[in-house]
Fold each of these.
Amino acid sequence: MIFKQITELQFDEFRNQYKQKNYWQSVQMAQFRKSNVPSWTDTYVGLEENGRLVAASVLESLPVFGKHKLYMALRGFLIDYDDLQTVRLFLQELKKFLAKNDCLYMKVDPYIAYQPHNPDGTAAQGYKRDALVNVFEEEGFHHEGFRVGYDSAFEPRWMQTLDLEGKTKQEVFKAMHTNTRQSIRNAERMGVKVKELGREELNILKDLVDLAGKTRHFSTIDLPKYERYYDHFGDDFKACLAYVDLDEYENNVKKDREKQVRALEKASRELEKTPDSQKKINRKKEAEYAIAGCDRKLAEIKEYKDGYGSVLYLAAASFIITSYEVVYLLSGSNKELNRFAGSFMIQWHMIQYAIDHGCSRYNFYGISGDFDEAAQDYGVFTFKKSFNAEVQELIGDFTYIAQPVPFKIYDVLRNIKHKLMH
């Protein structure tokens, strides 16, 4: 096998036929990062057998200590991780490449599961990829441990995914928790709709994410970053808004009320003829109850219009799409409008999108891996679990020190700088 530098086009062609592709290992992501920090440089490498690529990766590098560079393979390589011989050869040849190209150290976090888990997060009996960890370790890539929790310096090691392979929308919906199905049905009855936001509307996504960030105390991103996602990923980036058109909702409630008034009048007339009919008595009570419900809704609609105008922005979320999966990136909602279940509707909308486009799975993405009920993100975990999502524990992060002596100096200086800044 031959390890060599390849063109952007060769990488893209190989990626297109690689089933379990991810958006981090893509030309779009490399360009996206460079647009944010122009100092990043991307290099495409591959492992070739008999003139055919069997593995590839986009390596991103950044000068960090004189001419010495940090290299990163975001979410690892496009490779068969169960073919340990090929993985080992790729790592050996990669190290030779790094030695010739001023690498100080390298970080890689393979996009591959470590072991299976039960729906409640506990480890299940089954295959563990310890042998893969050992191959990386033996080749000098230090495993950073089986991290639990969130760390802004790393991509999540834990996530939740929904298997869609060979399943219909009806099957996927039926497998959801009863309360989740009910929330979606109720939202549909209340006229909640989902639409894709254009570039000029991304401020709506930002505002709702910022609102949620203030409530739940997480940091958010600025509008230009959303716009860069939109520009670089094109049709593979989706920003969705769940909303209610209150004028339309009001008209539907009024129509329902008129229907119930007619039913009440009919039941009242029939009761004059047969006053002891329990069936007619019950129908009259049902109509009265329904009319009272419609009156409550109309009063609520007036309050919402007074406070928000004629359209309610309930929730918004962003996604990145590959042929393998739809990845849920981030979202925000107005918690004062949670009764409309906008967040549930967005998820169901994009799950259906994934099924329609033949994706193998829907990726709810990051969770902490702490499944205790007291965990800070336990509500996030249970929300995703309610869609029948499975827990995925990724194998973790590896660091390769290409030049130990310069790295030691660099690390000391970096720690001093960190202490001075904090």
Amino acid sequence: MDSKFPFFSPLPDFPDDEDSSSSDGSLIFFQNLIQQAELLDTASSSKKNYVRRDRVGGHETLMADYFDENPKFNEDTFRHRFRMSKSLFLKIVSDVEAYDEWFQEGLDGRMKKSFTPLQKVTSAIKQLATGNPPDEGDEYLNMSERTSRECLEYFCETVCKRYGGEFLRRPTSHDVALLYQAHEERHHLPGMLGSLDCTHFVWRMCPTELRGQYMRGDHQYPTVMLEAVASQDLWIWHAFCGPAGSQNDINVLQQSPLFLAQRNGTAPNCPFQVNNHLYKRGYYLTDGIYPTWSVFVKSFPYPHIPNEKKFKRQHEAARKDVERAFGVLKSKWGILNRPMRSKTVKKIRSIVYTCLILHNMIIKDDGRAIAPVHIQDPPVEPVFDDTAYSELIDEETHWRLKHDLVEHLGSLDLPHLEVSSDDE
């Protein structure tokens, strides 16, 4: 204690009649105070601040709270905090532990036990679910900020490699048949594959030299875009993340691999029929900004006849699938609804794809998936088809398909689509 400077030591007594000497004494006192503080700060910064963390105690607390035979918190609380059922969470822990040795329990450089797979996955899931900083788990999991950040990065990378092939797959012929059936029963639209739209994620740590590229007039901060296709069960069938936020939906579509399988001949052959006309490919519901392609169906901006008004109502109701999917994603995974702290687009893309995969896994685990079983198609050798692109952008097919869908809806008895006298 004697070696440290007393920050609250009393000022020396100075005569009242000597104002100049009193001022000089006060100045010398504060100069000495600043010098001593600088010396203490230099001495403390040269030493590493080592914190002893009870890893074993953190694991025991986690087990007692959620995973013991009689846990402190029940299944509903677990699902609220981890965004999934306990059985699905334990399956993910087991899979990532077997897939990547980084999640396996071992010994550190001091020959002490490292964090358990349960602690590492819990840290990653908590960061994805809440969007809070990595040091949030220091008090509960006894895990440092750096280790928590590594848990998130390794977890996202492992989940994308382990589950991406199944839960971010393109629709197979089996999936397309189920999607056709489900959408026709729910939305009364034959041949519908899903709804297509884009959303933005705020990028907090965007470098200064890239801010102009990732900013747009209608967004206050730099953003990264995501193009996605969602079906009626909110399953994400297509995801393309990474375009700069200054672009619009058409610019993203021109970069997107959405129709790559159609152009190289590997897409499943799934025709459908509506109004006695046969169409080669399914279609996506879009808003007005998208082009008039044969695989896009847009609403009428100004409907006139009753059938057009019925189609507009049904189109707007069905296209809310992708909007609801975006809302569920951002409300369930808080990291998507808060400014991203990652410093590269690659890491942001990994986080977004991980949230999409977990989103689809939860839908399957809850039994709400339209196509829960992944049945692969026979392998096909990719061959570039010159005529595929011209068929995709064919405007004549677009208008004929739209007319057939209007006539199809008009022939059905759907009271909820009837136009009231107030809307006339």
Amino acid sequence: MDPRRWALFGIVMITCLVAMEGTVVSTAMPRTVAELGGSEHIALVFSVYLGALAITGPVWGNLADRWGARPVYILCVVVFLIGSTWAAMVQSMYELVLARFVQGLGGGGLTPLGQTVLSLIYEKQERASAQAWLVGAFGLASLFGPPLGGWITEEVNWRWVFLLGLPFGGLGALMLYFFLRPPVLTPKKVPFDWLGLGLFVSWMLLTLRVTHAFQPLLVLAVGVVGLLLLGHSRRLEHPFLPLPLLRFPVFAAATGLAPLLGAGIFGGVSYFPLYLQKHFGMDSLQAGRAMLPMMMGWVACSSQSARLGLRFGYAPVVGLSSLGLLFGYLSLCFGWVAPGQIGLGMAGGLSFTPLTLSVQEAVAREQLGQTTASVVFLRTLGASLGTAVLGAVLHGWGFVWMFRVGAFLAGLALLAFLPYRRALIS
């Protein structure tokens, strides 16, 4: 058998790990809070994980371009599994937040490097079929994640939710170690931009802090550090912050669209089980089952998104996802739960793979790691900020206003789609 198929199997297993982590944890949170206490930190459990994903994604992508995708990808899996094991043994919400941060450190490289490896070992026409396996696995794992997480929480213990991904991650890492052989590319022989990395991490931490404690001095610090980072990056030929990639119109347009889609989609999905449990009085298992319309919409759309992008163009598919996101939130504003779920699921299933493929095709193969990681970073940054903002709105004004803010984010994403469409057409 072609070794690439075994490598693809390993990537699929790791994709299942990432997908389940994004769905099963949300169904276990109410029971976790009941045992550990600290309900005021429930948003932090999600936003710290997503923030770590956002911070480390570009780091892993940069290292993959320098050292090779295979060893960096396997290292990410190991770090993620360490965080998962720790999360299953925590004794307080503070410790759970730290464990989720470790998960995020490793998880930041799982999605971008998986997509980068597929782009390296498969040509363009084969890539759609390989991506279909990847997004199909993501969708199926997302589909069965909520009811499985609810069942484990109710019948076993919420701690086993964090151990659920260990077999998938372990088997996937073994497949990558023995069968993944990406083509050897000329490594970058340029100094690593440590100052740029430090400024970037500082800016990210300050940005995440602002979302939890809005203070004028923090906002000023975010602006100052951001300007320092931009000024430093413009002076270097190979900066950590990939400003040279902005010369590609498709990538430049995606920098505005990806974070808005991430904020709207993941911000809504993260709190939806809590909405079902609080608003309808469901338990964890019932809430997991009730999320099936959303997950089915995600699966159905994600399994065909790459093929649809190649057949009709990436712009119509991504545009449809933006409309689906707006439709989903507007439906929830009127209390239409099932249409709202389908809209959010359609948005998640149609958007990310075509968006990533369109950017990958616009750059050289030597830049795939950093480019893919940058797109995933922007999406994850939006998801982290969106989760924090919607969580703050939920805590202060309730679910109705949270859905209204989500609809506003979806409208902004629809506006950001217009320059992306123009870039693809030109």
Amino acid sequence: MRRVKSSSADRQVWADYALIFIGVFALAIGWFARLYRLDFPRRLIWDEIYFPVFARDYLNGTPFFDLHPPLGKFIIAAGITLVGNTPIGWRIMPALFGCAMIPLAAVLGWYYFRQRVGALLLATFVACETMLIVYSRTGLMDGILVFSMLATFLAAVLVRRRRQILWPMILLGLTVAVKWAALPLAVPVGYILWRKGLLKPLLWTLWVPAIVYLSVVFVGQIASPTGAGRAFNDNGPLTNVVNWHRQALVNVSRAVPNEQASPWWSWPLMTRPVVLFYQNQGAGRVATVFAVGNPLVWWASTCAVIAGIGELWWRRIVRKTPIADHPLMPIVLGYVCLMLPWLPGTRVPYLYNYLPVYPFAILALVFWLCRLWRYRPWGAWAVVGFATCAVALALYFLPLAMGLPTGYENLQQHIWFESWDHDIFH
């Protein structure tokens, strides 16, 4: 009997070592993929025609109007200031935020799941998620937004005393100042603080994220006093803040048809990845920046959310047990609340609009894998096998995520479904 137990313990230890190795390897791949040949493509691609240009307009004092709050553009402008108005200058700050997102995910996994395996898995999946790699390599705000959301969620998890509640409130205001899409994050953050017995201080500090957010918008209107228009005016920053919000609310629901768009219900299935760049280099060689997610992580995380909802329903309705402090509650709340604003379908959305929601799906996936890890002797090695396959798929799709030259036939082999195909590929 002792030999059997010793053998089982040895296998668990080797599984630990294997997962650590996979995590370190994923970290190296994730950083490499986010930084290598960051200057390619050497022109503005996709929505880079907006955000780096607007960031440069802030620096040059050129009037413009954009429906998104200014913080993301301020961050991109910092990169242009440091490196210059070059492709690397446009992309360096999203790349740095993308690199920092990996250790941030490890810390979140450690403190949320209270297990080393949770930290390793969350960091591995963030590192090898090709969609996050794409948006870390482009001068866009989505990667910055995901980083800010993870930081805000972590800050809420770390709160132990009343005074510490200011940190998640400040970070929430800054996150919404990147994109309004993050506003529903207030629900899971507030839920965590409520379950910590901090409801009253939470309610007393709700003004903090509002003041932080409005302060950022106010600074934006000082830097570019355009209000609701595209020309400078003398209305004053307070009036311009009000007018900007009115115009942004009108524009945010404006539908602009595009053949790359996809309805919200299709995002968890990843039916329509977006092509940000395509170049035919001749001699059967092409280069593309194809914003496709890691299929294993993406689809497994969708299943994990469904299983999480089922788990909570089973516990509450069937078994009549409390679920308020179940670790899946903030995860499911975050996922559902961040998806809800897209249900009316008032604008034409794209797959990348799922990025603020996606971290909660990955958290659900990590939850179930942590549970699987406890099943001995095979559970830990099943988790190791899953993580290995996720990293392998990341390597498979990296040439498309990074814009590396590849053969046209190889590109076609990566188009797994007809809905993934685009006219520009032909």
